Inverse folding.
């Protein structure tokens, strides 16, 4: 879950919606100790989960990232607050990523309600 979040943050920081971007472990400090196959596999998982748009480079067999999707932006917005992110990970435990995103959305909504004194 941390790796998917880090990938989405790197995409948000790097991609400009005007081309395809190839991720390499050497390009990002947070990925330097990561196996390239693991990184590329998680990029593909993020695409399958609807968080990013990407294509495969048939020649080099690597994912080429286009951009974050609406769901990807929403996920990152919900995960920005470290307290909410940690609470969501703990509440979701070892369950699926989709459960984590639902818990994260619920916790974010509760957090906003408390901030606005709506609950």
């Amino acid at each position: 879950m941390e790796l998917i979040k880090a990938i989405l943050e790197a995409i948000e920081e790097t991609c400009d919606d005007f081309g395809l971007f190839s991720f390499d472990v050497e390009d990002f400090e947070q990925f330097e100790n990561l196996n390239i196959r693991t990184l590329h596999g998680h990029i593909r998982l993020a695409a399958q989960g609807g968080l990013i748009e990407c294509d495969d480079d048939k020649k080099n067999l690597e994912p080429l990232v286009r951009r974050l999707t609406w769901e990807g932006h929403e996920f990152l917005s919900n995960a920005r607050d470290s307290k909410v992110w940690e609470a969501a990970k703990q509440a979701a435990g070892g369950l699926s990523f989709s459960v984590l995103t639902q818990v994260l959305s619920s916790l974010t909504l509760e957090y906003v309600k408390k901030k606005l004194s709506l609950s």
Summary: Residues 81-115 form one domain. The beta strands are 21-22, 52-57, 62-68.
